[in-house]
Amino acid sequence: MKVFAIKRLLDRSIFGGSRGWIGHILFWLVLLVILIVSDFSHLGWPLVLFQKSVDIIFYAIMIYINLLYLIPMFLSRKKFWTYVALLLLTVLVLTPIKIAIQVYLFAETPSFQNYLLANQSYFFMSMFLVGSSSTIYGILSDWFIHQSEKMELQTQTMQSELKFLRSQINPHFLFNTLNNLYALTLKKSDDAPEIVLKLSEMMRYMLYECNEKQVLLSKEVAYMKNYLDLERLRQHETIDLTFNLKGDISEQKIAPLLLIPFIENSFKHGPSSQINHGWVKIDLEVEGNRLLFSVENSKGPSQPRMIHRKSGGIGLVNVRRRLNLLYDDKYKLDISNQPNSYQISLVLNL
What we know:
Shape: rod-shaped
CATH topology of the largest domain: Heat Shock Protein 90
Number of helices: 11
Number of domains: 2
Helix content: 55-70%
Distance between the termini: 22 Å
CATH architecture of the largest domain: 2-Layer Sandwich
Mean pLDDT: 76
Low-confidence stretches: 1-18, 304-314
Radius of gyration: 31 Å
Structural class: alpha+beta
């Protein structure tokens, strides 16, 4: 559990919610009222208020030290015994300070001072139980957050794939491909059956095989190659297209349809808008469990910056979001927008 995860934990909990620290204050005030109402010491409400206020302050210190420091720095890093020792040390430091303050506040009530001093072990135990309860709360809350993020991941993946199906092979691309196919059939070209086969394979891959969370990288590469072949047909001789593949892709798996938006983006905003001869260069290399993917394309010097442009309806923003959900901190994406070229570089831990 990282430090930012603890912050989210507090923000989503009954402590804060969307109102932030107002929720925290309200929580402690409600707890103070409960402690006062449940007190049976017959000290009178002013003295009880002072005592319980001190209790609340130290309980809050104990809990926030535990949630914001001890858990993320030690327990989440599997330093269990160090965490337990520091939790006990925190209790041993805070409890005497709390008792000393209460003894000072009740200087005119010797009987209650004697009660405080005679029951120090009880106060140590209560402080430790408060800290331990916050640990259980932290673990359970983090689990619920994790489950929520898993559901969000599933929803986001499904939405991304649906958007992809609606937009990746867009009507313009499909229309030009079918027109070229029609021309080949009129000429009775031997290429026509191959084009039909490639288009069929692409549609089958998108409709049936992309329902899984992960697919073989080899199938994803096959889909990319089919897409590039159809683009070659559509672009005719106006594009210089290279695709370099290195490494073993037979056993590796990847989230489906993750790389193709970058390729589609290169054609949509690159050579297709060039007056002169354009180019697209694609490199894909696998080193063990690491994938290195690069797409670079030419672009006119007057073309607007494309970092925030959308690619095929899914957009670089959505691709980043999907990468964050699927691979978290296991990827690095760099974008270079030069006057005459545009390049993305992705390093992904498979």
